[in-house]
Structures are given as C-alpha cells and as structure tokens.
Amino acid sequence: MKDFHIHSGLIEHTNDDIFSIAQKAKELGFTEITILEHISPFKIKYPGNSDPSNTIFADKISDSYTRRTSTVSVLIEQCKKAETEIGIKINRSLEVDYCESFEKDIEDYSKLDLDYLTLSSHYVEDPEADSENRLIHIGFAENTDYFLKKYGEEKLLELYFQNLMNGVSSGLFKYVAHLDFFGRILKDYEPKKVMKYVEPILEEIIKREMFLELNISQENPQPSLVIVEKYKELGGDKLVFGSDSHSVSDLVNSIEKRWKFVELVDVE
Ligand SMILES: [Zn+2]
Ligand SMILES: [Zn+2]
After folding, report:
1. I need a surface site. Which of 11, 138, 182, 220 has the fewest CB within 10 A?
2. From 3.30.70.1170, 3.40.50.620, 3.30.379.10, 3.20.20.140, which CATH number describes the 2-264 domain?
3. What is the 122 CA–ligand 1 centroid distance (Å)?
4. How far is the CA of 122 from the centre of ligand 2 (A)?
5. What is the DSSP letter of 24?
6. Which residues of 141-175 are buried (b: 16+ CB within 10 A; e: fewer)?
C-alpha cells in the first residue's frame, strides 16, 4: 500500500509531525509514502482569501525566503530520519504551484535534495490583472465566482488546462496531483465536457512516464473517474493514490475511501 500525497506539520494548516505520520503509516500497512508541503514561487493577494498559511511563499522578500529554505531543509532532514528510524520508504517532495513565468524558480527547487517535484495547479492567471496580482487561487468559492463573472466558465477551463499542460510539458515534474482541481469548487462540473482539454494532457503524462494521482481527499476523486477511464484507454498505467492527508487522523480515514476506489479502478 502506497500514498504519494501526505502533508506534515511543517506549515500552519497541519498538526502532526513527520514521525507520528510515518509511524501511523507503517502501522496501517503502508510500505511507501510521500511527505510534501505546498510551495509557491509567487505571492497572491487578489481577490478574496488566498490563505497564505497554507503555503510557503518563496518570493522576493528575504524573510519568506529564509522561512522557505529552513522549512524545506527541515522537511528533508526529518523525512530521512523517520525513514531510517521507522523503517518505511519516505519520498520527499514539494507540491509546487506551477506558473510558466516562474519556471526558473521551480528549477531551483528541483536541485534540492528531494525525490521529485509534485505538479499542482491551484491557480489561474487573470489575463487582465496587473502583473502583481494576476494569480487567482481557484480553491476558494469567492475567487472562482469572481473569475466566472469576469470571463465565464469556458475561459476558466481553457486557462486552467493550458497552465497544467505547460507544467506537464516543462519536464520539471514527475507527479501530477488532483488533475481537475477546480471540480472541488465548480458547481455542475461535468468531466465529459473537459475531455478536449484533458486528453492531450493525459497523452503527455503517459509519454513522459509521469505518475497520475487519484486524489481521494474529497467525496469525489480527482481526477474524476471518467478521466481515469480515458487515461487507461490511452495506455496509462501509472495511477497512484494520494490521500492529501493533513494529519494522522486524515490518513486513518483515507483507508476506507481507498478500498472503495480500489474496486473501481486498478490503482497501486
Ligand atoms: Zn493541492
Ligand atoms: Zn496537497
């Protein structure tokens, strides 16, 4: 049993430390886990709540930079220690908010002592906003509403998937998290209607031999099962579970969901 998406207590929205998570994972029968934290090379201010406590922002401000490097080095050090002491394979990763204009910063992350980088798309670029405030976190209803009112749903999908495609083809990542992330927020989301955007991305993921995550943190998995079917039809065979746990209890609770989905899709 493996889980490639577990957050630890290194940033403010999580509670449990790497050791207690690794210990519980071992007790539950996991043989391999990935511990990761959010990291963003940019600062987001607009509009609505971008919840800065969720993310390590590595921008130009030197204080944040110090915090970022110290947090990441603690993550690396603790993962290594827990791996030896507890006896479970622990991959070290960062959940990186991708944006094309920050590829250079992301390249720097890939030089750190991590196993791989996790591609994560939580943002859509507002084409009309000024350069300071152009990235909008679409995991918050007020932000998505703002975007939908201004540009409409089709534009949101188009920009979201274009960004994701750029991330996948950047070659900087090995793992794609919650592929249709906006499905958590968008009402009446119909995975079938995004297939024209999704299919070329899935092809690229397969070609590059990247891992595709089945994120089971919400009631409905991400990607949606229709997308998973398409992935398999195209020849994809690297679907893995990511619980997106933020605590030991999340990890425990993820087990039941895992059994539910393991019956539906053949996933490691
Ligand atoms: Zn995420
Ligand atoms: Zn996450």
Report:
1. 220
2. 3.20.20.140
3. 7
4. 10
5. H
6. eebbebbbeebebeebbbbbbebbbebbeeebbbb
For the stretch 97-139, pLDDT in tens is 898 888 988 998 888 899 999 999 888 888 887 666 677 778 7
Ligand 1 centroid from CA 119, angstroms: 9
- Per domain, the residue ranges of the chain are 2-264
Structure tokens at 180: 């249709």
pTM: 0.89
Nearest CA among 17, 38, 12, 10 for reference residue 251: 17
Contacts of 205 (CB under 8 A, 6+ apart): 168, 176, 212, 231, 236
| pLDDT of 185 | 79
Amino acid letter at 99?
Answer: C
Q: Give dist(CA 112, CA 98) in Å, integer.
A: 17
Question: Alpha-carbon distance 242 to 240, whole Å?
Answer: 7
For residue 94, which of 151, 40, 153, 148 has the smallest C-alpha distance?
A: 40
Find the helix packing angle between 195-207 and 225-233, rounded to 10°.
50
Torsion of CA 108, 173, 78, 90, to 10 degrees: -160
Phi-psi region of 139 (alpha: psi -120 to 50; beta: other; left: phi over 0): alpha
Residues with CB under 5 A from ligand 1 (ion): 120
Nearest ligand, measured from the Cα of 178: 1
Cβ-proximal residues to 48 (8 Å cutoff; 6+ apart), any chain: 137, 140, 142, 143, 146
